[in-house]
Amino acid sequence: MGTISWRWFHLLASPPYVFRLAGQLGPWLAAATVVTLAAGTYGGLVLAPPDYLQGDGFRIIYVHVPSAYIGLMAYVLMASAAACGFIWRIKLAHAVAVSAAPVGASFTFLALVTGAVWGKPMWGTYWQWADARLVSELVLLFLYLGYMLLRAAFDDRDKGDRISAILAAVGVVNVPIIHFSVEWWSTLHQGPTISRLDAPAITMDMLAPLLIMIAGFTLCFAWLVLRRLQAEILEREARTRWVEQLVTQGAV
Amino acid sequence: MSEFLAMGGYAVYVWSAYGITLVVITLNVWLAQRRYHQARRAVSRPDGRVAPVRQPTVRRLT
């Protein structure tokens, strides 16, 4: 048992193995993403009943919550990968962090924009500097951008990986702040809808499309990161025998 | 159908939120594909031959 898990661990740190695995998973993830997002969008826009307070305006939840979730989850993934790369000097871990960053940043941006568009009709404003959830989410976007800019500032890739990993890891303190901001400082943003311990504050016919959308966004995120990871691996391993073999076989 | 498009008076907000989502996801897919193909081009030379592999320098001790 122990040997099997160690074998797995070594395989997952092996660039050729991960490159091939990503290539094999890609089409399945892409297909699953299209089906899931189509089903979730139909459920959210057509099947779910209008909210008793917000009417049809609440349907923005089906794109807002999944993008905010991906923005947070991607940051945790990026920071843990960067930390693993820093501590154990695993280059593949840095490659994962680098691949997750732009995707996570774009979904954080999407969460901010869809939140603003939702805030206008419900709160009467697009933005509120006094709201902790809004400001901490903006800080998350800046952490992503800071990580990418800092990394890009180094000509030496290894050095850029290591220095930017520190920024990514330190930025993790923002994640619980975002999560609990609606409870610690309740201003405009509403409290949690589905992650409450007792029972979700939402009925099943409204919840199902949301869960499907979260699954769809996660599949999409996985596809995007694996595609970028393949590119990152190819570049980092450009002068190795296995990439050379891929090129001669015409497999890339 | 027009009732569906009207979104109970929230049409502008709902459709712009879904529109920007579509744009962000499409851009993400396009950029990831572009990134992958750029890396592919970088490792395989245009003439289809293997990119030169840097050989380790061996210095004779004599």
Structure description:
The complex is a heterodimer of chains A (252) and B (62). By secondary structure, chain A is mainly alpha-helical. Chain A has one domain. Chain A contains nine helices and no strands. In chain A, helix 2 runs antiparallel to helix 8 and helix 5 (132-152) runs antiparallel to helix 6 (157-170). The longest helix of chain A is centred in the first third of the chain and has 33 residues, at 15-47. Chain A starts with a helix and ends with a helix. The mean pLDDT of chain A is 92. Chain B has 62 residues and is mainly α. Chain B has a domain at 18-45. Chain B is built from two helices and no strands. Chain B has helices spanning 2-6, 11-43. The longest helix of chain B is centred in the middle third of the chain and has 33 residues, at 11-43. Chain B is rod-shaped and about 85 Å long. Chain B starts with a helix and ends in a 19-residue tail after the last helix. The mean pLDDT of chain B is 82. Chains A and B meet through helix 2, helix 3, helix 4, helix 8 and helix 9 of A and helix 2 of B.
Topology:
The complex is a heterodimer of chains A (252) and B (62).
Chain A: H1 2-12, H2 15-47, H3 61-88, H4 91-123, H5 132-152, H6 157-170, H7 174-184, H8 204-236, H9 241-249
Helix pairs in contact in A: 2-8, 3-4, 3-6, 3-8, 4-5, 4-6, 4-8, 5-6, 5-7
Chain B: H1 2-6, H2 11-43
